[in-house]
Amino acid sequence: MPELPEVETIRRGIAPQVSGRVLSDLILRRTDLRWPIPGEQLRREAVGHPIRGVERRGKYLLLPCGPGRLLLHLGMSGSLHLPEPDLPPGKHDHLDLVLDGGQRLLRLRDPRRFGALLWLTGAPEAHPLLARLGPEPLGEAFHGDHLHRLARGRRVALKNFLMDGRVVVGVGNIYAAEALFRAGLHPALVVGRLDAGQWHRLAAAVQEVLTAAIASGGTSLRDYVKSDGKPGYFKQALRVYGRVGQACGRCGTVIESLRLGQRASCFCPGCQGRG
DNA sequence: AGGTTCGCCTGCGGGC
DNA sequence: TGCCCGCAGGCGAACC
After folding, report:
1. Is-contact A72 A35, C-beta < 8 A?
2. Residue A44 CB closer than 7 angstroms to strand B?
3. Considering the domain A4-131 in this protein, what is its CATH number?
4. Strand C at less than 7 A from CB of A229
5. Would you write out chain A's pLDDT as a tens digit for each of its 275 residues?
6. Hey, which end of chain A has fewer CB within 10 Å, N or C?
7. Looking at strand C, which nucleotides approach a protein CB closer than 7 A?
8. Burial (CB count within 10 angstroms: exposed 0-12, middle 13-18, buried 19+), residue A44
9. CATH 3.20.190.10 domain extents, chain A
């Protein structure tokens, strides 16, 4: 479940190892990830060119290379590794990007195969997967007024709204729950009824929790270029996610979970009232 | 058209 | 020990 902090940590981890190296080959062991990997096109258009950097948009990683960009998504179980070139691939190691003639490998592992490797040409923001994405939560375009404006007249539950990539990118189940706790807002609130003050509190809480998680990943996970599907070292800082049945650290009320849109939503009934 | 549910996948933990 | 079940979840598709 790499969410934005995990993807950002991975980006920082692999960028120094990948940037400036030539993509000299592509080894595909299976191509049926979320979408078929366009192997022929990648070989024709990307192989032979240097990878110029590692960018992130939401939970997508973008690797500019020759006339386009590799787009990587880790789904919920994907991870990236930089194995020794002679290390045999494991069962779920679906592909290798071969760099600098085999001196280095960037290996994608993804047991559940919800991830993706695609090839983008043209403006990345015009690609269907990226075109409708909302602002980066840690960018200037994300603030309480933005949320307030998008929520006007809508009746979705607050937590679902926050996890909608068209509203803001990168906030998955864990950080949505944590941000709502920090803002003192119940996950089932109808978004059209929140006021400006509540939206500003929530925007600030989203930024705080993501910033703290990235900082935690950046220190504890410095050499970590993988994601094993767990919340990583930020787990110890989680206040409601994964803590159902335990006492809230702030007020002592037992943490509960409700289902919103088929998804478990942990919250503290004491701290997160409906008003 | 906004809102909800489904489906893709595998590993894992719990119950028996 | 082994099997079945439910759950985890990003996100596009399908549905109401």
Report:
1. no
2. no
3. 3.20.190.10
4. no
5. 688 888 898 899 899 999 999 999 999 999 999 899 999 999 999 999 999 999 999 999 999 999 999 999 998 888 898 999 999 998 899 999 999 999 999 999 998 898 999 999 999 988 989 998 999 999 999 999 999 999 999 999 999 999 999 999 989 888 999 999 999 999 999 999 999 999 999 999 999 999 998 888 755 544 445 544 455 667 778 899 888 888 999 999 999 988 887 888 999 999 998 76
6. C
7. 7-12
8. exposed
9. 4-131
